[in-house]
Write a structure and sequence with these properties.
- The chain is 29% helix and 24% strand.
- The chain has 343 residues and is α+β, with helices and mostly antiparallel strands.
- The protein folds into two domains: 154 residues, Phosphoribosyl-aminoimidazole Synthetase, Chain A, domain 2 (Alpha-Beta Complex), CATH 3.90.650; 132 residues, 60s Ribosomal Protein L30, Chain: A, CATH 3.30.1330.10.
- The protein has a seven-stranded mixed beta sheet, sandwiched between helices. It has a six-stranded mixed beta sheet with strand order 1-4-5-10-6-7. A two-stranded antiparallel sheet has the order 2-3.
- The two termini are 13 Å apart.
- The N terminus is likely disordered.
C-alpha cells in the first residue's frame, strides 16, 4: 500500500529525507515502477505503426510520456499521440483539484512527445463509489466541475467518456467502503510530423537540462495548475518543431527526482543536477525536464522569454544521478524501477 512521496515529505529538511533511499523506494513502488509486465501482454505495436512505444530508451525499459502512432496506410508524416493522466491519491484529498491535475498530466504528456497543444481532445473515465451517498456524489460533482473548468482553460474538448460507479467492497470491519475517487483522463493529439517525435531518454553527454514551467516549492496536498501553463506548452511545442529539443519528460508522481531518474534509465547516461535537495520530491503541475544541446541553448532560451525556464543541470557520461548531496549509480535506478516491490 505504499504511495508516492508527495509535498508533505518533500518539504522536510534535506537532512531528514534520505535522498537515495527515498528515490529508490519510489522507483520500486507500485504507482511508479515499470508496468512492463502489463504492457507486454497487449499489442502495443499497433500493427507496426507505433512510432513512440510505451517503453523507450536504449534498453526499451523506460516509461514514455505518451505513445505516437502513424496509422497504416495514411499519407504524409502526420500521426496521433495517445496519453493519459491519473492520480487517485489526489482524489482522496480534493476531487476538484485532482481533475485539474490529471487533465494537465494527460495534456503535458502529449505535448512532451510532440503533439500540438492546440489540437488535443480528451475523454474521461470516472471510477467512483455509490453516488447515492451524499459525500460520494459531492466529490463526483466536484470532479465534473474540475473537468469543465480545465477543458475551458486548455481549450481541449471532451469527445467521449464513461463512468463506473458503485465501486465498493466489504471491509474486514464489516462495513462497505468505496474506492478512492478516481478520474482517468485520456488525450488524443495531432503530431504534425512523426519524424520529429520526442522521447524521454537522455541522448548525449554535455547537453543541458532545463526545468520549464512554474516550479512551486510551496507544500500543498494537491498542486495547482499555474496560469502560464498553456503558454509554456505552446513554447515547448514550438521548440520541438524548431528542432531544439533532444528529449523531454514530465514531472508527476515522485517529482523532479523521479523524472530525472527515469531519463537516466532511458538513456543509460548520468545527470548532474543543480537544484535544492529539499525540492527534489515536490509534486507539481505544468512542469517538464527538457534536454537541449549547447548549440541550441540560446535559441531555446529565447523561445521561453518571459516564461518560467531555467537550466538546472547537464547530461554526463558518468552513469550517476548526482544531486547537491548525493550520487546514485544509474544501475541502481534501473534495478529499482524494474523490480517493483509488489511483485
Amino acid at each position: 500500500n505504499q504511495r508516492p512521496v508527495t509535498s508533505d515529505m518533500a518539504h522536510r529538511p534535506s537532512s531528514v529525507v534520505n535522498i537515495k533511499e527515498t528515490l529508490l523506494s519510489l522507483l520500486s513502488s507500485p504507482n511508479i515502477a515499470s508496468k512492463a509486465p502489463v504492457i507486454r501482454l497487449y499489442d502495443h505495436e499497433v500493427q507496426g505503426g507505433t512510432v513512440v512505444k510505451p517503453l523507450t530508451g536504449i534498453e526499451a525499459d523506460a516509461p514514455s510520456d505518451a505513445t505516437v502512432i502513424k496509422p497504416i496506410g495514411t499519407k504524409g508524416a502526420k500521426g496521433i499521440s495517445l496519453s493519459n493522466g491519473i492520480n487517485p491519491e489526489y482524489g482522496k484529498r480534493d476531487a476538484y483539484k485532482m481533475a485539474w491535475s490529471v487533465m494537465d498530466e494527460a495534456i503535458r504528456n502529449a505535448v512532451a512527445v510532440g503533439a500540438d497543444p492546440e489540437r488535443i481532445a480528451v475523454l474521461d473515465n470516472f471510477c467512483w463509489g455509490d453516488p447515492l451517498q451524499p459525500e460520494t456524489l459531492g466529490s463526483l460533482i466536484e470532479a465534473c466541475r474540475g473537468c469543465h473548468d480545465a477543458a475551458l482553460f486548455y481549450g481541449t474538448p471532451f469527445i467521449s467518456g464513461k463512468d463506473s460507479l458503485n465501486n465498493e467492497y466489504l471491509g474486514a470491519d464489516g462495513l462497505r467502503h468505496a474506492i478512492p475517487p478516481t478520474l482517468l483522463i485520456s488525450a488524443i493529439g495531432i503530431v504534425q510530423d512523426v519524424n520529429q517525435s520526442i522521447t524521454m531518454d537522455l541522448k548525449e553527454a554535455g547537453n543541458h537540462i532545463y526545468l520549464i514551467g512554474e516550479f512551486s516549492v510551496e507544500a500543498k496536498s494537491v498542486p495547482d495548475v499555474p496560469a502560464a501553463t498553456p503558454r509554456v506548452y505552446r513554447a515547448l511545442h514550438q521548440a520541438i518543431t524548431n528542432g531544439f529539443v533532444k528529449s523531454a519528460h514530465d514531472l508527476s508522481e515522485g517529482g523532479l527526482a523521479v523524472a530525472a531518474a527515469e531519463m537516466c534509465i532511458g538513456g543509460r547516461l548520468g545527470l548532474e543536477l543543480d537544484i535544492e535537495d529539499s525540492t527534489l520530491f515536490n509534486e507539481v503541475n505544468g512542469c517538464l525536464l527538457v534536454e537541449v544541446s549547447p548549440v541550441s541553448a540560446s535559441a531555446f532560451e529565447n523561445q521561453f522569454a518571459n516564461l518560467p525556464c531555467r537550466k538546472i543541470g547537464s547530461v554526463t557520461f558518468n552513469q550517476t544521478l548526482k544531486t547537491t548531496h548525493e550520487e546514485i549509480p544509474v544501475n541502481k535506478l534501473v534495478h529499482a524501477f524494474n523490480n517493483p516491490k509488489h511483485l
